[in-house]
Design a protein that fits this description.
This protein is α+β, with helices and mostly antiparallel strands. Helix content is about 40%, strand content about 20%.
Length: about 250
């Protein structure tokens, strides 16, 4: 059966000297993997029709029980050329692709996640160079997965005093509860929690990128978000740290 899908590459790997294996996120068929035979040949019908962070129309042969399909045709729909010239924005797009690739199961349709990925890539072209963009995008990602962290009150007793962030609880807990329950927490100053609440509620990254934060506040936000992403999605902090060091240059 031949399937036509709107798709964005999540990762591209060499299969031979002339072919690629591509992991795609598709709008209606979830995450799939395809073999693009002869994709690197000069006369290939795939040449210039797919690339990281771009949106393409993909035709592939689907076979029941298989996890690797054979691509038939591919046509580029949207290139997102900014990532070719803005290396900081490209690093943000690369992180987003890795995030969606590592957390999305094969062949599990989720049109809302595809729409979010497409939207975040579009926004990354303009805002991805800013160090506040990725934390804002991660909050949107968490919300889409039903794991939006709580930054408003203690999740155990509802207190709003002396809050610290606890990834295992899904948000903030007060000092008293964290001591009683012996919970691992990270420092969460009130001004940092206020910024995170504002970003979490913002529909557009301009709210985050317009925030004037000092180095310590940025460090606190990075620690809170990276701890949460590691706990909830097993997203390794080393890659995220490398990204944040890049966009903070």
């Amino acid at each position: 059966m031949i399937i036509r899908a709107t798709a964005i590459p999540l990762a591209i790997y060499p299969y031979s000297s002339t072919s690629h294996i591509v992991h795609w996120l598709t709008r209606y068929h979830g995450k799939i993997s395809t073999l693009l035979k002869g994709a690197l040949r000069l006369n290939s019908r795939f040449l210039g029709e797919y690339e990281l962070f771009s949106t393409s129309e993909l035709l592939y042969f689907a076979k029941s029980g298989s996890t690797l399909f054979t691509a038939k045709e591919c046509a580029l729909l949207e290139r997102r050329g900014t990532f070719r010239t803005n290396w900081r924005a490209m690093q943000s797009a690369s992180y987003l692709a890795a995030l969606f690739n590592s957390t999305t199961p094969e062949n599990a349709p989720h049109p809302e996640l595809f729409a979010l990925f497409e939207e975040l890539l579009d926004l990354a072209e303009t805002h991805g160079h800013h160090p506040h963009f990725i934390p804002w995008a991660e909050l949107k990602f968490c919300d889409a997965h039903g794991h939006a962290p709580n930054f408003s009150n203690c999740l155990l007793c509802s207190s709003t005093e002396s809050l610290k962030f606890c990834a295992s609880q899904g948000g903030t807990v007060c000092s008293s509860c964290s001591r009683e329950q012996k919970l691992p927490t990270v420092e969460s100053p009130p001004d940092v929690l206020a910024a995170l609440r504002s970003w979490q509620q913002a529909a557009h990254p301009s709210t985050a990128t317009a925030s004037a934060l000092n180095a310590q506040q940025r460090t606190n936000i990075t620690t809170i978000i990276s701890t949460f992403m590691l706990y909830q999605f097993n997203m390794k902090s080393e890659y995220r740290q490398s990204l944040m060091e890049t966009v903070n240059v």
